[in-house]
Amino acid sequence: MNDFLQYTLNGLTVGAFYALVALGYTMVYGIIRLLNFAHGDFFMVGAFLATGVLSLLTGSGLPSGLVVVVALVAATAAAAALGGVSARIVYLPLVKAPKLSLLVSALGLSLAVEYGTALSQGTGFRSVPHIGFLSAEHAIGLTDGVRLTYAQLGVIAVSLALMIGLYLYVTRTFTGTAMRVLAMDQDAARLMGVNVERTIMMTFIIGAGLAGTAGTMYALYYPQVNFLMGFLLGLRAFTAAVLGGIGNIPGAMVGGFLIGLLESYATGYVAGRWTDVVVFGVLIGVLVIRPSGILGERVAERV
Amino acid sequence: MRGISGLTGLLDSARVKIPSLAVFAVVLLAFPSIADEYWTDVGVKVLLYVVLGLGINVVVGYAGLLDLGYSAFFAVGGYTTAILVGNYGVNWWLTLPIAMLVAAIGGYLIGYPTLRLRSDYLAIVTLGFGEIVRVTANNLEFTGGPDGVILPFRPVLFGYELAGTQSMYYLVLVIALVVGLGATSLTRSKIGRSWESVREDERVAEAVGVPSIRVKALAYVVGGVIAGVAGAFFATYIGIVSPTSFTFLTSVLILLVVLIGGRGSLVGVFLGALVVQGTPEVLRSIGDEWRIFLFAVVLIVLMFVRPLGLWPARTRRGARLAQSAEEPPLPEVGVAPGEPLLEVRGLTMRFGGLLALNDVDITVGRGEVLGVIGPNGAGKTTVFNCVTGVVRPTAGKVVLGGESLIGRHPHQVVQRGMARTFQGARLFSDMSVVENVLVGMTARMNSGVLTSLLRLPAQRREEQRAGRQARYWLDFVGLSDKATRFARELSYGDQRRLDIARALASNPLVLLLDEPAAGMNPSEKADLMELIGRIRDRGVTVVLIEHDMAFVMGLCERVLVIETGAKLTEGSPYEVQQDPRVIEAYLGVDEDDEGDEDADGDLGAGPDDTTAPTLTKGQ
Amino acid sequence: MENLTRRLGTGIALTSVALLSACGGNGSSGGDDGSGPIRIGVSAPLSGDSAAAGTDIVNAAKLAVKKINKEGLLDGRKVEIVQVDDACDAQTGTAAMRKLLTQKVVAVAGGYCSGAVIPETMITDRAGVPFIADASTNVEITERGLKHVFRTIGRDDKQSEFAARYMVEYLKADSVAVIHDNTAYSKGLAEATKDTVKKLGAKTVFYDAITPGAKDFTSFLTKAKSTKPQAIYFTGYYADAGLLLKQAHELGIDVPIIGGDANQDPTVIKTAGRAAEGFTTTTAPLPDFIKSTADFVSAYEREYGTEPGPYAPYEYDAVNVLADAIARAASADSEKITEALHATKDYAGVTGPINFDEKGDRVHPIYVTAVVEGGAFVPGKKLDESGNWVDAKG
Question: What is the pLDDT of residues B508-538, one digit of tens each?
Fold first, then answer.
């Protein structure tokens, strides 16, 4: 029972990261039907920037809480800016091009960001300074032996808050509404006066910003960064977005937490070496039964 | 480009085409003797990627199924050969067909359960399949775990060992040629057209007689077989098969062969393979990070300059128009003229809580022209969709010539003699006019994969006959002079006529026309009336949905009025027009309003299908 | 049609040019031509995750060549390094070997990932070119009866024996957990350890693989913890070890954690912080553990300004023992060098005396433990000749 609780707790923590990154996949897919392979790399850039800020400011005498906040804000802003610039330069000129061309650009951008980082930051693994109040000593004892650390609590709470915020933004604000209209029909959106380019840019900026936030928390929680770190996580987040129903914001959240839990339980009750097989097996099974994912709607594919 | 116009001008003439092909062939053949061992090795890998590119071109380029796990089939072929040769000492040549078979089974296994998925979902499923294959190979004992399987034997041909780099080069060159020829025969046959039609619009393809699920599964199987061949060669050439050779990145590289080269073209695949496998070697000296970074930048720039790839498929496509026309005889049916041919009883369709059709009865006599009218949203197109199997009605019977059609797939309905057109003429826009018509004949053609692959005489005769019949139908609707254009280049009126020709090409007993005259000017309408008259005169039974009363009056002996999903009345055009209930139903409705219940939709399968996609609040 | 022809023509012209310009060298391959520099190939991962280790290996080889050329070798001919990237991958590795053969190398010294070295040695062996592995420990490399394969480092079954004895005999653990990462090297070492633990009468209560790069191993460790092992042996790479240690610490796992020789890297300590204290690795003696390597270490530091990595001395020895064989053979012929290598007797390498058994494996490789204390690896224990555990230092 204790083990089950520990698996659950851990699955939720990992799932929170997947969910945050999955949101960006889902938003971009919803708007321009693009599997943005570079999204995991926005996450990586956020993690690197946060590492830089933390290395610079740790030991400068500033309170560690403030250092973390500065890192979070800086990394989020940097990732968001990168997302916006990518959209402007790489994706917007190709919005009308065939979908596969966009896919190639996304692959190209992903490699460019990864190896650009490698060229400037090296290919090795870099450690992230430890922040005292995030260490495992600070925890709430749940049962005998199972503890919820403040760091875990923070990751889950921040993720949930951001997801709810995003949901409200998309459903309640003008830009959010524009995004939804754009997702339904680009031409109609244009006719209704939606600034299509700007809305697409905003989608990238928000999605990449969320990835940057996730990257910062990731670097704090798993204190080691590397230029390829976005790849595996991006893949899992992409899986989560599809499982939840790509294009659907609550779907991305549900998918993220589900993949996290599934991985955790598969590791615990099957075996670590079979985790990927279990995760993808379940994904394929779900899609065969529900071809548009758990919360996805049946959508007519446009060619 | 202007700078090298002299060169291109020189190469322009046909006089130069043959010599340049010859030069290319000589370079390919002479390459190992010019190049050293290392570059010959690069050449072998380029050729292996040509083979893989040809395979994924079938899946992605032709059938339009995005595959991010193609290396799984490559792995299956490689492991099959490696295990049989390495662990059981089987002769390498014998393992080749086995590797192909196992990869084909793999293709079917992944294909069958997932083919109802849209392509983006297919992408993740194929990716997952690729990972499952790799991780499983890594975990199992008999695949050698992470060490992989080592092959001690080398293929021997006439006592000559073939594992040397040079001999391998020629062997793979031959295989690339054979696979290239095979792929070309397939893609130029009925099968290739079916793949393309599915890529263009799967539901329309199904509705005009293409068995879409089978066609897609076939694409996976053919793609799997080709990757299996490549895997068998890869295994014996590298001498070891291990999981690190079949990662997601391998799949991406293979996919890039087609996307860089340009889908659907042989030259494109060759160029793509050269770029993907060749440039890294040329650039190796500048350091790995710079090499990959530059490659990435080139990819991005390439998509601006040539979004369709370096060498996309020809701009003027496919089968030429046949010189002579051949009129197909109308199929036999055991129903006398005037007797009921199509009978619909108690047709009811519910979408969730919405009752779209309520207990509709329709009887159409053989040779009759029946008009179906009704206000927007009345359910007219839903009747067509239920009758043709696009959606399965909640209740009711549909009988054509004594045979029930309930539960049949749309392509089976076409086979049984009922064809249809679509609101707004949904053509296969990136295929030529004549190809559109040929796709309409799929249901009446019998050639299978093997006969098409080998171009056996029976298959060639069938293709030639199909070409002559296509010529007949294009003559019939008056589009022969535009036969080699892309469908998307046609005027609106011509698109409508092509839609009708495509439906007629299946040589139906019953033709369903969905608002054929919408948006046409009076002279186009007159032409269309004349055309429908000639279709009727051939003995084809016609049911048409139309708003234009004059049009309906001029053609139909009988008119059926549908309102809010139920039959309001039925009778001669004159009776119907006088009926006060009909007048009331139409009151305030603009007759020329084109938007029927599903003008935007899929085939108008109901509210479920027209739900706006994505970024919604969830449900 | 004209358009098609033109594009076809252009494409063919361009392709032909590309193909022709791609062909650098000429004709036949392999073998020394009796004049000019003697070429020795060095293959190592110079790209990807293991690039740092690869660079270290190439540096060591260059250092050895510098020394050899100063001392003079054969008929006043210089020795030259030809370095190639094998990217830790079978396909890239075999291509790299073909490239080396076209550059007429007389022998190869290098390699890192066993998964690449196994196919690489198949190519060199067929060409009759000796390959001395400096870092690849997978048993398979020398178990295939290849005549031209040697290694200066010990095999997995030797390291695993040492690791198993350390856990079962020194730490007195009755039950151990063995964790690998599903790569060729890691799984090979893990399997062998499991077997030896059994032979020594203890039990392996947990045996499973992590996904490299997954970062979160908490669930994995929770499961391992539930099997109550008295020691944990991790055979994966250092990049995952730091996080593994940190998370084990957070879960309150307090049994000794031991890592294989791929964990000998300061990144582990930086990432795990205080959780790294007490972490022990089984490794070949590190440069600063062995007296004989002192000169090598200082020379390396003078040349490159950093400390040598764990495999640098083995690569240094590999190149030197090769030069020794060339001198004894008095020839740069690959077959004669191979014969001479097989006849090597007590060559005084920086990692101790070097002898090869009939498989090409090093006779009596030495292992030690290194322990993290105060934020750095310090010498731990080793087995003396009579099988007693003694301090490794000295």
Answer: 999 999 988 888 888 888 899 999 999 999 8
Q: How many angstroms separate the CA atoms of C153 and B245, rounded?
A: 26
Q: How many helices (H) and strands (E) does chain C have?
A: 12, 15
B619: chain A residues, CB-CB within 8 Å? 295, 297
pLDDT of residue C51: 77
Tell whether B348 and B238 lie within a shared domain.
Answer: no
| pLDDT for the residue numbered B314 | 62
Mean pLDDT computed over A73-81: 96
Domain boundaries, position B384: 340-417+508-596
Confidence band of B603 (pLDDT split at 50, 70, 90): low
Q: What is the pLDDT of residues B278-289, one digit of tens each?
A: 887 777 667 677
Q: Is the pLDDT of residue C19 over 60?
A: no
ipTM score here?
Answer: 0.89
User: How many domains does chain B divide into?
Assistant: 2
Domain that holds residue A65: 11-228
Strand order in the sheet with C203-209: C203-209, C175-180, C231-234, C257-259, C280-283, C368-373, C376-383, C389-391
Which domains are assigned to chain C? Answer: 2-154+291-354 (3.40.50.2300), 157-283+367-391 (3.40.50.2300)
Residue A25 falls inside a structural domain:
yes
C-alpha triplet B377, B378, B380: angle, nearest 5°: 100
pLDDT band at B434; cut points 50, 70, 90: very high
Q: Which residue of A has its CA nearest to C268?
A: A127
Q: Check if C222 contacts B (Cβ < 8 Å).
A: no
In a domain? residue A6: no
Look at residue B554 and tell me if it is in a domain: yes
Cα B378 to Cα B347, B381, B543, distances in angstroms: 14, 9, 16
Distance (Å) from the alpha carbon of B43 to chain A's nearest alpha carbon = 25
Do B238 and B123 lie in one domain? The reply is yes
B361 falls within a domain: yes
**Closest-approach residue (CA) in chain B for A239:** B124
- CA dist B540 and B544 (Å) reads 12
Three-class secondary structure of residue C386 per DSSP: coil
Name every residue whose Cβ is closer than 8 Å to that of residue B86 and which is 6 or more positions away in sequence: B149, B150, B151, B152, B153
Q: Is C226 on the interface with A (CB under 8 A)?
A: yes
Query: Which CATH number covers residue B353?
Result: 3.40.50.300
With vertex at residue A150, the alpha carbon angle to CA A145 and CA A153, rounded to the nearest 5 degrees, is 95
Residue A67 forms part of a structural domain: yes
Nearest to B535 by CA among B518, B560, B558, B512: B512
Higher pLDDT, B199 or A184: B199
Q: Which of A45-49, B335-339, C135-139 has the lowest mean pLDDT?
A: B335-339
Q: What is the pLDDT of residues C331-377, one digit of tens each?
A: 889 999 999 999 998 898 888 889 999 999 998 888 889 999 998 88
